[in-house]
Design brief:
The complex is a heterodimer.
Chain A lengths: L4 H10 L7 E4 L2 H11 L4 E5 L12 E4 L2 H11 L3 E2 L9 E2 L3 E5 L3 E12 L4 E7 L6 H7 L4 E5 L8 H10 L7 H17 L2 E12 L4 E3 L3 E4 L8 H4 L9 H8 L3 E4 L4 E5 L2 H13 L6 E4 L6 H12 L6 E8 L4 H14 L6 E7 L2 H9 L5 E4 L2 H16 L1
Parallel strand pairs in A: 14-16, 16-17, 17-18
Antiparallel strand pairs in A: 1-6, 2-3, 2-6, 4-5, 7-8, 7-10, 8-9, 10-11, 10-12, 13-15
Chain B lengths: L9 E5 L4 H13 L2 E6 L7 E2 L2 E4 L2 H8 L3 E4 L3 H12 L5 E4 L6 H14 L2 E3 L5 E4 L3 E4 L8 E8 L3 H12 L4 E6 L10 H9 L6 E7 L4 H12 L4 E6 L23 H10 L3 E2 L6 H13 L1
Parallel strand pairs in B: 1-2, 1-5, 2-4, 5-6, 6-7, 10-11, 10-12, 12-13, 13-14
Antiparallel strand pairs in B: 3-4, 8-9, 8-11
Helix pairs in contact in B: 3-4, 5-9, 6-7, 7-8
Classes of the chains: A alpha+beta, B alpha/beta.
């Protein structure tokens, strides 16, 4: 799960990581009031959307008086911000973060992620702040410093020293580095993050280390023990169909193609998307019905797929192992009768009692195209697409 | 021969009195697996289908001589269940639970390393040595005893591939689902090494997917150390970047972990990578034919 920058900065404060003074505003009036409280000097306004690339897209602006802050907020709130990461439709800005401007001496990158190969958290730092870490890692790998953390002992002070000296920081700011770096690691670990990132972390002219930006991604599997984090979910950042699908306990991701698919099992669902692509079409979605694939789930799956106006055909691909194909076929038939199917449906069943399952589908009187194996499934999809496009 | 489990395997089920544990215990017993004991804290002394239930894994292993633990415990308690098994004398743990917090698994992995105990999963369909033993969720009848090893990060997709083999009369030595999470126990490399040492395994099918670098590491190992032919399929060529595709571990992040990258590495290592998931059975048949000629 992702959260907004202003929310991540609230968490940073709890863990002793210095952040600029300021607050979040939902209206231009609130923005002006926050600016007034900050007082003299430059004020920064930052559009609060989850996607990155805000700066280049006009989502970060400067102002020098409360009145100007109000005017800029007026423009920002309600606009659809299109960044390199949002897609062409952009994302509506509903809140702006209003903060004091900083006199910056140096910018750094600092982040924690899980290293899957070494099976531990890794703290990464670079003196190339403001640039994406992947970019630095591929172009200037020697500028990225890593410290792998033994999860049973946590981040050690010597590791912070190595990173801080690696960044060229003075011994004078070592104490401050310890609280910022240590705080980030503790926030990552205690809040069950998959990513915690400060980019840039700045050294101010007053020799303070301050988190100018904040990004945190959380492990969905651990949200059950973090009610405070779950409460930060912003449904406006999610695709409405995906929100509806999650209400049905379906694992759904919307894509831009025209062939909808529902499949039992995530790996099989990905392979089915790949199969659709091989027929020359594009998949409209990823949808995993889970191991059970009950009539109820298939019905809800149909509802979600049919709500996507790009869908011109639906492919159901189910491998029944312990679950029997005749049970599955009955479920699909029940679901097909309850929803209004206005696109062709291709269905492929395999596994226990498959003959009985196919016979039921063939004799159902429903307009279902029954495929046998995966190869045949691809061919049937191609046929249907040819027919619907002519 | 087979790897990791065979006719002498004795299984303890953690969570045996739960719905899932009970259902799959019965399926395993029906397949011929020797399930010797179960564990549910607080239910020690009971029996399920005649199988004795204990309060602790230590007792269940000590009294009944279990060698492998199968874990059907909810996500919030599963990490502890794995560590309990590792501290109780089994040599292999199979954890089926989906949704264990990633950071919990970091602690678990380090603990297992110290204990020298192997883990399959979590979030795995399990393992089967056809005709001998099943510690898994897969339907037994789609498998056939034989000489192809199968390793995979998914469930139903593995069944699909296995069934393609069985329908062609190609049997399997052992099939292992390594799990769909970010942090898992045995890796592709660990299993390739075991299959390389198994005299009855002639070829290996590797089913990978986007996310992480397990396939790239497998490719490196195959290039250096594997003498047996490998057929691979990598799912997720059409998956978008930055989205978790069902499995917690199936995500392209920062442009890393794409199917294209994995296919290229495997290709360069001499692996027969098939583009269409429908073609795996056929490609394995071809590999075996060429090997035997």
């Amino acid at each position: 799960m992702k959260i907004h920058e202003y929310q991540a900065k609230e968490i940073f404060r709890q863990f002793g990581i210095p952040v600029p003074r300021g607050g979040v505003a939902g209206t231009p009036g609130e923005a002006r009031e926050i600016a007034r409280q900050i007082g003299e000097g430059k004020i920064v306004l930052k559009a609060q959307i989850h996607a990155g690339g805000r700066g280049k897209a006009g989502g970060i602006k400067l102002a020098s008086s409360p009145e100007e802050v109000e005017a800029v907020a007026e423009e920002m709130i309600g606009m659809r911000l299109v960044t390199a990461q949002t897609g062409p439709e952009g994302q509506e800005v509903r809140k702006v973060l209003v903060e004091e401007g900083m006199g910056i001496e140096k910018e750094f990158y600092l982040g924690v992620v899980v290293d899957r190969t070494r099976v531990c958290p890794v703290l990464m730092a670079s003196d190339q702040g403001g640039v994406e870490i992947e970019m630095i890692a591929s172009e200037n790998p020697e500028r990225v410093h890593m410290e792998y953390v033994d999860p049973s002992v946590g981040l050690r002070p010597f590791q912070v020293s190595r990173l801080a000296f690696g960044l060229g920081l003075d011994a004078a700011v070592m104490g401050k580095a310890r609280s910022a770096f240590g705080g980030l690691y503790r926030a990552f670990w205690e809040k069950d993050c998959l990513l915690a990132e400060i980019n840039p972390l700045v050294l101010t002219e007053g020799k303070e280390l301050v988190a100018l930006d904040a990004k945190m991604n959380f492990d969905d599997s651990a949200l059950y023990r973090h009610g405070d984090i779950s409460a930060m979910r912003d449904p406006f950042e999610e695709d409405p169909l995906e929100v509806e699908a999650s209400r049905y306990n379906l694992n759904y991701i919307k894509l831009n193609g025209s062939v909808g698919c529902m499949v039992n099992g995530a790996g099989m669902a990905m392979a089915t998307m790949d199969l659709i692509k091989l027929t020359g079409a594009e998949p409209a979605n990823f949808l995993d019905l889970g191991g059970g694939a009950s009539a109820e789930m298939v019905k809800n799956g149909f509802k979600i797929l049919l709500a996507d106006k790009n869908v011109r055909a639906i492919l159901i691909n189910i491998f029944g192992g312990i679950l029997r194909c005749d049970t599955l076929a009955n479920g699909v038939m029940e679901a097909s009768r309850e929803v209004e199917l206005d696109v062709p449906v291709i269905i492929r069943l395999e596994g226990t009692n498959v003959e009985e399952g196919r016979r039921l589908l063939d004799q159902s009187g429903l307009d279902l195209i029954v495929a046998t194996d995966l190869k045949d499934t691809g061919e049937r999809v191609m046929e249907v697409l040819k027919r619907t496009s002519s | 021969m087979s790897i990791l489990i065979d006719g002498s395997t004795r299984v303890v089920i953690q969570g045996i009195t739960g719905k899932e544990g009970q259902f799959h215990m019965r399926q395993m017993v029906e397949y011929g697996t020797r399930v010797v004991s179960g564990v549910t804290p607080g239910k020690g002394g009971q029996r399920v289908d005649g199988i004795p239930v204990f309060n602790t894994v230590r007792e269940a292993v000590g009294m009944m001589g279990a060698t492998v633990s199968a874990i059907f415990v909810p996500p919030a308690f599963a990490a502890d269940a794995i560590m309990e098994a590792a501290d109780s004398g089994v040599s292999l743990i199979v954890c089926f639970t989906e949704g264990i917090p990633t950071l919990d698994m970091l602690t678990v992995s380090h603990y297992l390393k110290k204990k020298g105990v192997r883990l399959i999963g979590p979030n795995t369909p399990g393992i089967i040595s056809p005709g001998k033993c099943k510690v898994g969720l897969m339907a037994g009848y789609i498998h056939q005893e034989g000489s192809v090893g199968v390793i995979s990060r998914s469930g139903t997709l593995t069944y699909e591939m296995v069934y393609q083999l069985t329908k062609r009369g190609i049997g399997q030595s052992t099939c292992v689902g390594i799990g769909g999470d970010q942090i898992i126990g045995l890796s592709f490399v660990d299993l390739l090494e075991l299959f390389e040492g198994d005299s009855d395994t002639e070829a290996v099918v590797l089913i990978g997917e986007i996310g992480g670098t397990a396939e790239e590491e497998a490719a490196e190992f195959i290039r250096k150390s594997l003498t047996k032919p490998v057929v691979a399929f990598i799912g997720g060529r059409t998956a978008p970047s930055g989205r978790r595709m069902g499995h917690a571990g199936a995500i392209i992040s920062g442009g890393r972990g794409t199917a294209v990258e994995k296919i290229r590495s495997l290709d360069e290592a001499g692996v027969r990578v098939v583009e269409n998931p429908a073609d795996v059975g056929e490609e394995v048949a071809r590999a075996l034919r060429e090997k035997r000629e």
